[in-house]
Amino acid sequence: MNDVGLLYRYRLAWLIAGTIIYYLSAHLAMSTFSLGPDNIALVWLPSGIGLVMVKCYGWRALPFIFIASYGANLPGMDALGSVTSYFHTAISAGANTLESFVAYQLLRRYLPHDLKRFTDIIPFLLAVCLIPTAINASILTPNLIWGGYITVAEALPLWGMLILTNSLGILIVYPLSTAFNRIEPVDSGQLLRCLSLFIICLGMVWLAFSMFRGFIFLLFPALLFLAVQGRRETVYITLALTISFIVVLAAQHPGPFAMADAGSTRLLLLAYLYTITISVLGSELHQRDLMSETSAKKSWRYKANHDPLTGLGNRLLFMPLLENEMKRAERMERPFSLALIDIDNFKQINDQYGHMSGDSILQEFSQLLLNSLRDIDVAARMGGDEFAVLFPESPATEAENALKRLREKVEELDIRVKDTQITFTISVGLAEFSPDRFDSADSLLSQVDQLLYEAKRRGRDRIHL
User: Fold this and answer.
1) Is residue 40 domain-shared with residue 156, that is, in the same domain?
2) Domain check: are 101 and 56 in the same one?
3) What superkingdom does the record give (predicted)?
4) Count of structural domains within the chain
5) Residue 244: which of 422, 42, 449, 12 has the closest Cα?
6) How far is CA 117 from the centre of its chain?
7) How far apart are CA 5 and CA 299, in angstroms?
């Protein structure tokens, strides 16, 4: 019961925090992100915040979104002093709440895996950003006409502006929220690079508004470079702050976006903001696709070349290494040795103690083998209970000494199954490479295999050269 109560208080605290953030971002948009003469907010961040709240807390978030939207919209809608302003404010708050709910439902339907791939951009833009905001705008616009806040002639431009500004808020906020789902350790070099690019971006924006408008186009390569080189959270934080900085400066003076009239200025600015937002989002997602593909290829290659039980390389990995070592030894006229190791009576151990015990022995022996070798030596599991070891630049005498030490360590192994100690021995076939004796890796391996067979025939638990 205490756990349930704690969870309830935890959710309530975050919902209240989300409500406050929604309310403050709405006030910020109306006071700072609006462009005259009719003070239309250029970016409506609450649309994205509402979507995140519904995603995190489901239907429980809807009343909180309604309250935050109502509180943020009431001062502006009550400015006319009409007794119906409370009613029209409630309709506006309901439309904003509906927008967040519909956006989440469409997100679940069309992007059940969330926004993770480059191909997700189009469904995210159309289904999650444009459709819910169009529904919201289709409710808000008639409501504003009904309340006498706008004229019919102003309705269509306002309807389009609401869609653009609200959807831009979703485009900015939602990817930023997903970036914090999994935070990786911070690399100081990468963090410094991201911080430098962030400062460069803000500097270019300031120069574009204060000196030469062409600097606004130099923002593209800086943001795109950050998108492919930076951490996800720093990419989207930089994007959000850069856009906010542009809008704040544009609200004071249109700068590089100045056109003949305010409507054209707003459209040009929104087109620019949309372009850089979608470009950065697409670049970051595409980079993530490439990294996932590269990681998957590495994983597949590793699995194809390594034994899943012991982690050692397998025959597929070992044979090319052996061939390369033969060529190198022939060219450098330096010796190397090859050993095949077999665990004695492994089948009987499996039959007596079970396959899980047999697997434990293989794992313990593999770890012991790795710990007993030099860094330049190569060990592999060739199959079953047979292992191969490549000793570069080592004559057979040196390799034999290393294998003797390995046999001694095997005797000291303490493997227990149900309080029963399992002991085992190993047999080894060992040969030194000579170019005049072996013309291929298979011929060398075949010779060492015969030596291993001879070691087992002579009573096992021995090294045969």
Assistant:
1) yes
2) yes
3) Bacteria
4) 3
5) 42
6) 10
7) 43
pLDDT digits (tens, 9 = 90+) for 153-171: 888 988 999 999 999 999 9
Q: How far apart are the first and last CA of the chain?
A: 72
Triad 400, 403, 408: Cα angle to 5°: 130
Percentage of the chain beyond pLDDT 90 is 42
Between CA 180 and CA 107 the distance in angstroms is 18
1 pLDDT band (50/70/90 cuts)?
very low
Give the domain extent around 9.
Answer: 1-180
Alpha carbon distance 164, 156 (integer Å): 13
**Tell me: the pLDDT tens digits for 308-329?**
999 999 999 999 999 999 998 8
Single out the residue of 8, 3, 91, 14 nearest to residue 49, CA to CA.
14
Confirm whether 385 is a catalytic residue. Answer: yes
- pTM, two decimals, is 0.74
The kind and range of the H/E element at 376 are none
Geometric angle at alpha carbon 456, from 455 and 460, rounded to 5°: 90
Of the residues 120, 307, 342, 385, only one is catalytic, namely 385
